[in-house]
C-alpha cells in the first residue's frame, strides 16, 4: 500500500485533465479590469496630453499652431514682457524636425508654458505666464493681444471651445476669436478680432495628465452629487500645414453649434456675475 493521499474530487469518464497555471506573482490575483485601471493610473502625472473637454483645460498649458512653413508655439518673452510666436523647428536639424509629429511635440523651454485657471462660477478661463511675475493674456476692443496685465478683468477672460477635431478656439469678452495673423513684412502676431473660426483661429493645446485626471474625478463627483461644480484655485494649480491666404476655411455645422453654445454660456455667466455684483452693492447701500 502507498501512503499517498488520494484526491476526494469526483472525476467522470471522458473529462479532460485541467492544466495548472503558474503565477509569477502571488499577489497578482485581481481581475483584468483592475489591472488595466492600475496601468492607466501608473501613467506619469506630468505627461503632456490633449484635452477632450473644456473643463480639462487647467494648469500648465502648451499652445501650438500648425502654421506654414513651420508650426509655431505661443511663447512669453520675460525680458520684453511680450508674446512671441516661436517656430518649433528653429533649433532642430531638418531630418530631426520632420521625424517629430506636431501632436507629439512637448515644451522644451519654460517660456512655452502658460498656466490656465478657471474663473469661479463662470465658463471663462484666464491664461497667465508660467514665468516671471505672472502676466495675463488680454485683448482690448481693437483686437490687440498682449501679456502685460498684473490683474485680471473682463479683457483677460477667454471662453475656450474644444472643436470636434480636437483643436481649441479661444473667444474673448467681445465675442471675437484669438487668431494668428500675418503682419507687414511676413511676421506673425496674435490678434483677437476674428468673427469666425477658420484655420488661423484653431490651436492645438496640451495639458498635463494629472490635471486631466483631476477634471475627470471632479466631474464624476459632480454627477454623483458629492460635490459642487469645480472651481480651480490659481495657487494650486492635423490638420496638415496650410499656406496663409486671403480665404478662410469653412466652419462645419458641428463647429458652429459648439461656438454658439459657448457664446450662450459666456453671456449667461456674465449676467450671473453682474446680478451678483448688483445684489452685493444693494446690500451695502
TrEMBL record:
<comment type="similarity">
    <text>Belongs to the FRG1 family.</text>
</comment>
<dbReference type="Pfam" id="PF06229">
    <property type="entry name" value="FRG1"/>
</dbReference>
<protein>
    <recommendedName>
        <fullName>Actin-bundling protein</fullName>
    </recommendedName>
</protein>
<feature type="compositionally biased region" description="Basic residues">
    <location>
        <begin position="8"/>
        <end position="22"/>
    </location>
</feature>
<feature type="region of interest" description="Disordered">
    <location>
        <begin position="218"/>
        <end position="249"/>
    </location>
</feature>
<dbReference type="InterPro" id="IPR008999">
    <property type="entry name" value="Actin-crosslinking"/>
</dbReference>
<dbReference type="GO" id="GO:0051015">
    <property type="term" value="F:actin filament binding"/>
</dbReference>
<dbReference type="InterPro" id="IPR010414">
    <property type="entry name" value="FRG1"/>
</dbReference>
<dbReference type="GO" id="GO:0071013">
    <property type="term" value="C:catalytic step 2 spliceosome"/>
</dbReference>
<feature type="region of interest" description="Disordered">
    <location>
        <begin position="1"/>
        <end position="48"/>
    </location>
</feature>
<keyword id="KW-0539">Nucleus</keyword>
<dbReference type="GO" id="GO:0005730">
    <property type="term" value="C:nucleolus"/>
</dbReference>
